[in-house]
Each structure stands twice: as structure tokens, then as C-alpha cells.
Write a structure and sequence with these properties.
With 304 residues, this protein is an all-alpha fold. Helices cover 53% and strands 2% of the residues. Strand 1 and strand 2 form a beta hairpin.
Length: 304
């Protein structure tokens, strides 16, 4: 009997195992951060399938209405599982499309439209692969040559303040602190913090992209390239570099516990609860005060 059939000949005696601590895969500087991540995420195929089922039976039906809300479970939260291969895009597409067919047969037009919108976001993910395949240099420089010589501000102090969530702008700081604590950010907040990084601080977008790569559990080179190129104006169909979000068009849906701020006929809605949950130094402030400070930033610092 040869060794390929008699596998025990390779491992005489008892096979010993050891823990992750004994392997030394985690140093002391990572323990506190990893403990925070463990509170928010659970890895593995089993948990990925449970998360997919929860999304199909829950927030998918109200995806179009709630996907812009940043204070709760309003999106699929499946991107980390996609990143680590615990869930495939094909399976996700199949399950969601099956749900759409079921709702179509039941004449559930709302559910059908929600699925269409979600599948559109999956399409953008695949588009990012197309972009990186045909333009492999886009993780290092802008796709458009006119930004090649843009005078970015090389300021380590600004970069550190942004990373630590100490810029003084509540929505930006809340987002960056949530990123460090959970390894995840809502897409809307990703747009806010990256736009602030590129257009307000004028720091090199590659710095921000690399920091996202280091901290996001769902860090995806192709998706991150697409996002940062889009925000910095590096794509033909992206935001112009001099374009800032205007409070008249930036509408963040209000959660049930938050107050909106009315300025003239414009309702500028912000997530006061989201800011309070991530900024310990603002928990004593009412939502309307936080909303007013965010409005000031949107009007003075991020209006075009």
C-alpha cells in the first residue's frame, strides 16, 4: 500500500493542534482593535449564509427606501463575506434574482424594484473589475491625464487628523471612528469622508485609498480604485475635482429619533444619532445641535 492511499503513514502518532495565540498571529498592538472587530463581525461560511438569508427576508424589501440611512442595518452587510470568499457573487445574484422572480409572480412591484436597484450595485462591482483589467495603472494614478500634475497637499498632520476622526467635522469624524471600530462604513459615509479628504483637505487620493485598504474588512482593490477615482475626478463619468456636495442636493434620510434642520424651503437632513453613537464627546448634544454643525460644514466647506 503506497503513501497516497495510506494517509496515516505520513502522520504517525497523535496529531496535535494549537490555538491562534500559540501561533503568534496577533501581536499586542492588534488585540484591542481585533476585539472591537469581533464584536461586529463573525467570519465563516455559516455566518455568511445566515447574513444572506437575513438580508433576503429583511432589509431587501425596503432597500430602495432605507439604503441611504446610515444609522442601522439598511444594506446587505455582505461585502466582507464577498471579500473573504465566504460568499460568491454568483450565489448572491442567484438568490436575489430568485427572490425577484417570486415577488414578480406575487405582483409585488415594490419588491421587484428593490431587487433591481440592489443588482445595479452588484453591477457597479463588476464594472470596477472591468476598469482595473483594462486600465491596470488606475490604482496608482488618475485615469484622466489632466490630473497627473495636480498639486496635492502633502500634509501628514491633516492625514493623521482624518484617520483618527479629529477633523472637527462631526459627520466625517463619526465615520472615521466607526471605520476604526468596526472595519466597515456605509457607502454614503464613504462618499462623505473621501470627498472631504480629496476636496476639502486636498490630500492625495492614493493615501486615502491605501488607508481604506488597511482598515476595511471588505477592502477591495478594484472597488476602492473605482470609488476614489470617481470622487477625485479621475474618471470620465466621475465627479469633477472642483465639485462639492451642496446642501440643497445632499439629503441624508432621518432616522426615527433624529430631527431635521429646515433652512428656508430646503430640508437638510442629517443623521444625528449616527454621529452621537460614534463620537463620545458629542453624546450630550441634542441631534438638532449636531445637525446645525453639519449644516454649517455643508454650507461653508462643501458647497459648490
Amino acid at each position: 500500500m503506497n503513501g497516497w492511499t495510506d494517509k496515516t503513514s505520513f502522520f504517525p502518532g497523535k496529531i496535535l493542534s494549537c490555538s491562534a495565540e500559540e501561533l503568534g498571529l496577533e501581536d499586542s498592538s492588534e488585540k484591542s482593535s481585533n476585539a472591537l472587530l469581533a464584536r461586529a463581525w463573525c467570519p465563516g461560511w455559516s455566518y455568511a449564509n445566515k447574513s444572506l438569508e437575513a438580508f433576503l427576508q429583511g432589509s431587501l424589501l425596503e432597500y430602495a427606501t432605507n439604503r441611504q440611512k446610515v444609522d442601522g442595518v439598511t444594506t446587505s452587510l455582505l461585502s466582507p463575506h464577498l471579500h473573504f470568499g465566504e460568499l460568491s457573487v454568483r450565489k448572491l445574484f442567484y438568490e436575489v434574482r430568485t427572490k425577484q422572480v417570486t415577488w414578480t409572480r406575487e405582483a409585488n412591484a415594490v419588491g421587484e424594484q428593490n431587487v433591481t436597484l440592489f443588482l445595479r450595485s452588484i453591477g457597479f462591482r463588476e464594472y470596477s473589475r472591468y476598469l482595473s483589467f483594462h486600465f491596470p495603472f488606475t490604482h496608482e494614478r488618475s485615469l484622466l491625464a489632466n490630473l497627473k500634475s495636480f498639486p496635492w497637499r502633502v500634509d501628514e498632520a491633516y492625514f493623521k487628523a482624518w484617520r483618527q476622526g479629529r477633523t472637527g467635522y462631526p459627520l466625517v469624524d463619526a465615520g472615521m471612528r466607526e471605520l476604526w471600530a468596526t472595519g466597515w462604513l456605509h457607502n454614503r459615509i464613504r462618499i462623505v469622508v473621501s470627498s472631504f479628504f480629496v476636496k476639502f483637505l486636498q490630500l492625495p487620493w492614493r493615501w486615502g485609498m491605501k488607508y481604506f485598504w488597511d482598515t476595511l474588512l471588505d477592502a477591495d482593490l478594484e472597488c476602492d480604485v473605482l470609488g476614489w477615482q470617481y470622487i477625485s475626478g479621475g474618471l470620465p463619468d466621475g465627479h469633477e475635482l472642483d465639485r462639492m456636495d451642496n446642501p440643497q442636493v445632499l439629503l441624508l434620510p432621518v432616522c426615527d429619533n433624529c430631527e431635521g434642520v429646515i433652512v428656508g424651503v430646503v430640508a437638510v437632513r442629517v443623521q444625528g444619532c449616527f454621529v452621537q453613537s460614534n463620537l463620545s464627546d458629542s453624546v450630550s448634544l441634542p441631534s438638532v445641535i449636531i445637525s446645525a454643525s453639519l449644516l454649517t460644514w455643508l454650507h461653508n466647506g462643501a458647497s459648490g
